[in-house]
Amino acid sequence: KMPKNVTIIEVGPRDGLQNLKTFVPTEAKVEFIKELKKAGITEMELTSFVSPKWVPQMSDAAVIIDSCHDFKARDFVLVPNQKGMDRLKSTSCKNAAVFVGVSNTFNKKNINKSTEESMTELEPLIRELKEQGYFVRACISTSFYCPYEGKVAMEDVVSLCNRFVDFGVDELSVADTVGEANPKESYDLFTLLKEELEDVMITAHFHNTRGMALANIFAALQAGIDRFDTSAGGLGGCPFAPGASGNVATEDVVYMLEHMGIGTGVNLKLVVKALENLLPHLDKQYESQYYKLVQGS
Ligand code: HMG
Ligand code: MG
To answer: Which family does it belong to (predicted)?
Structure first.
């Protein structure tokens, strides 16, 4: 079942940076994104159109899109509501990422609505985006565990995913928001999703809080998943998911896959260069084995 090639969806500029306390200068973000594109990244979450009061780090979203978006790439922008959609429509970017938590408590903390209220709000927005030719990805948070409610049932994840498919989304990014899943849970959920949602593009999104993300990716590969959200430098975490740490590092995933003979199209040296240039602007170090190895630290 193992794929020959895997698509890496870089989420560093969005998930990676959103949680950093110190504002990263817009020019440094732009440079980071451009260098990641040079490294061979063809799909990337550039930024998000959310409330600047809730997530100040993303307040420069419009400038980021104007400076970085090119039509050859699949550049995503996160949008939570009508206002986010309106802001997206004022740009040239045609790829939207909506996001909802399977668990109600997380969803309330993250976007101030219950899961059901979010679905009601998103349905007409997604249908409209689809009519207008947008690519829509749905990010499904707390697909394994919720930081407030604990274990999440697989049936609830499948049913939420099915509703998004019915709304017309092109892709589901199924997330372990707090990095609590283990490889057996990863294999079981992705096997079930592949069975239930034939012909739907499914992506796995792992945070590495407990050091299990690479093992979870290996398990997901065996379940037939060939798309992974990763973040350069292992930065990341949702500000409204206490206990979550960074996403699995792009370099570590690319290193593992390439050494298994699975192609990614990503040039590791150029990812490291992008990270070196970004580092002086950050208030933290990278959480990536590969980066530490090549820096000799
Ligand atoms: P709210 O306070 O309920 O919103 O927040 P509201 O509709 O009452 O509006 C309040 C104010 O926000 C108003 O401004 C609106 O105009 C403004 P004011 O009148 O006070 O000046 N506003 C907006 N401004 C800009 N863009 C918008 C927007 N919407 C309203 N789109 C809201 C609701 C959704 C806005 C808020 O909760 C929010 O921004 N949340 C941010 C959530 C977030 O970014 N989380 C991180 C991303 S998700 C994630 O990381 C998980 C993921 O990685 C997968 C995984 O790992 O699980 C994807
Ligand atoms: Mg995330």
So the answer is: Belongs to the HMG-CoA lyase family.
pLDDT score at 292: 95
Strands 145-146 vs 150-151: parallel, antiparallel or unpaired: antiparallel
Contact 139, 169 (CB under 8 A): no
For the stretch 49-85, pLDDT in tens is 999 999 999 999 999 999 999 988 999 999 999 999 9
CB neighbours of 121 closer than 8 A, spacing ≥ 6?
A: 81, 82, 113
Please tell me the residue having the least CA distance from ligand 1 atom 8.
112
Query: Which 3 state secondary structure label does DSSP give 176?
Result: strand
| Tokens linked to 249 | 């590092």
Neighbouring residues of 45: CB distance < 8 A, sequence distance ≥ 6: 9, 10, 11, 13, 14, 15, 76, 77, 78, 97, 229
The answer to whether the complex's ipTM is over 0.90 is: yes
Contact 9, 225 (CB under 8 A): no
CB 203 within 8 A of CB 229: yes
Helical H segments across the chain, by residue range: 17-18, 26-38, 61-68, 82-89, 104-111, 115-131, 154-167, 183-196, 213-222, 250-259, 268-278, 289-295
**Residues 6 or more apart in contact with residue 284 via CB below 8 angstroms:** 20, 235
How many other C-beta atoms lie within 10 A of the C-beta of residue 84?
Answer: 21
Instruction: Select from 15, 44, 48, 51 the residue to mutate for testing ligand 1; criterion: most ligand atoms less than 8 Å from CB.
Output: 51
The helix (H) or strand (E) run that includes residue 287 is none
Ligand 1: list residues with CB < 6 Å.
15, 18, 48-51, 54-55, 78, 80-81, 83-84, 87, 99, 110-112, 139, 141, 175, 177, 205, 207, 238, 240
For the entire predicted model, the pTM comes to 0.98
